[in-house]
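Notes continue from the previous slide.

Worked example: a multi-chain complex. Inputs as given:
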Amino acid sequence: NAGVMQNPRHLVRRRGQEARLRCSPMKGHSHVYWYRQLPEEGLKFMVYLQKENIIDESGMPKERFSAEFPKEGPSILRIQQVVRGDSAAYFCASSPPAGTSGTNEQFFGPGTRLTVL
Amino acid sequence: DQQVKQNSPSLSVQEGRISILNCDYTNSMFDYFLWYKKYPAEGPTFLISISSIKDKNEDGRFTVFLNKSAKHLSLHIVPSQPGDSAVYFCAATTRGGATNKLIFGTGTLLAVQP
């Protein structure tokens, strides 16, 4: 049973380019979360999605950032016109549908390390 | 507004001794707490959790204690092993709401000396 998969693991972009980060949740998981870890900081919540729905995007920057979790395929975190301050590790986590697990455990992927030159 | 705080950036312990990692929170709505372990260049790995209706949860070498009145929890690792060296994150959430987002502390780097 494969865990949460993220790709690419490393992504280098120049200022002004677009970054697309992909996340495939664990099998049977329909909830996806994106977190960002800036250097020397903890993980900060960005967005929570279920299939075809954004449930909570309270942690997303208002501009340039968007996320989707289509009916088919992986979840995508998209950053337009990247700036140096976007350089960070972006982690995706997944969890099973509510009520199917006794815990609120989220399973994390290995992360995508974005470097903006 | 840091709702979950880990005030010790690092901790060094001798192999075989107890490691105690601390975490404080400010939001009284949190009712579920988790500890994650993270190695460099990897994602966080779930270790142990505790519901606010309990004050202790134990799993092998790991025990989490919760003091709700003090809004404080701690992770005890005994005996500590060199492979336990990693960054440990405390996280909190409110179950039953519209979102299950985790609020993380800034982490404590544990170094277990052989």
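Summary box: Chain B has a mean pLDDT of 94. Chain B touches chain A at residues 4, 6, 32, 34, 36, 41-46, 49, 89, 93, 95, 98-107 (CB under 8 Å).
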